[in-house]
Amino acid sequence: MPQAKTKPLQQPEHASEQAEEAEHVESALDEALDESFPASDPIAISFDPESGSHKKPPG
C-alpha cells in the first residue's frame, strides 16, 4: 500500500519571508497611524491585492 505524502508545515526560508512581510506590514501600519490625525481620520494606507504592495495614497 502506498504511503500518503505530506508536505512539511513550513520551510525555514518561507517562514523567514513571512516574518519579514509581517514586519513590513506592521511598519507600514504604524507609519499610517502616525500620519492619520485626528484619530477620526481613516488610516492613510492602501493595499493592492494584485501586486501585494502597500502604499500611502497621494496627497
Q: Can you tell me about this structure?
A:
It contains one helix and two strands. The chain has one helix spanning 12-35; strands spanning 46-48, 53-55. Strands 1-2 form a two-stranded antiparallel ribbon. The model has no long low-confidence stretch (mean pLDDT 72).
Detail the topology: elements first, then pairings.
Elements: H1 12-35, E1 46-48, E2 53-55
Antiparallel strand pairs: 1-2
Shape: elongated
Please report the number of helical segments: 1
Mean pLDDT: 72
**DSSP strand tally:** 2
Unreliable stretches covering 5 or more consecutive residues: none
SS class? alpha+beta
Q: What value does the Rg take, in angstroms?
A: 18 Å
| Share of residues in helices | 40-55%
Strand order of the largest sheet: 1-2
Distance between the first and last residues' Cα:
64 Å
Strand content: 5-15%
User: Largest sheet, described in full?
Assistant: 2 strands, antiparallel
Order of H and E elements:
HEE
Q: Nutshell version of this structure?
A:
The chain is α+β, with helices and mostly antiparallel strands and 59 residues long. The chain has one helix at 12-35, and strands spanning 46-48, 53-55.
Defining traits:
10% strand, 59 residues, 2 strands, two-stranded antiparallel ribbon, alpha+beta
